Amino acid sequence: MSKPIVLITSASGRLGKELIALLARDKNFVIRACCFSSNKESALLALGADEVVAFDLNDAGTWKAALEGVSTVYYSSLNVTVLRNNFFMNYLLKTDCESIETEGWFSNPLGSARNSFVATRDIAEAAARILAEGADKHADKFYDLNGPEPQTMDEIAGDLSKAMGKSIQYRAQSMESFENDFGSTRAEFFEYLSNGRRFENQLVP
After folding, report:
1. Theoretical Cys-Cys bridge with 153: which of 29, 170, 181, 199, CB 3.0 to 4.6 Å?
2. Nearest to 33, CA basis, from 136, 41, 201, 25
């Protein structure tokens, strides 16, 4: 099995050089170092880089060769905006639509935990505004995106009852039972949610 390729931008800088030296000891990666001037190539190879390529964010002609086959990028020069989104409201009840409609109940392992679910449309709207307004306003900012108020599952059942004009119940479920029904990946999402953790998306304006 081939080793993963790690692209290190700003490779000739202080952090970049230290990282190359450490990864070279690990020997589990192909280290592709980026530099702006060819006279630094021999020094980067001596540190342990396997490959040295020219890479300039302002020159699209350098991107393809630098990124070819890369699995991971280390960078220290890009402007980043992070959207720290709470759990997507859209996914909360997507597997319960039939039981809600035909039997009047839904189930998950969240119990009495309160969460302020956020709609994906609202996240997309925030992302669109950030990209439109650009890096001058939003570079290196971190935004927590939540719904208007935290709610328990029983409170959500109450809102559904009003919206649908019939009684909807919430039935608490054990995490073990939930994992048996939906698998470990979805169970891990709900564990994150019940522990109050957030998922992060990154935008590069």
Report:
1. 170
2. 41
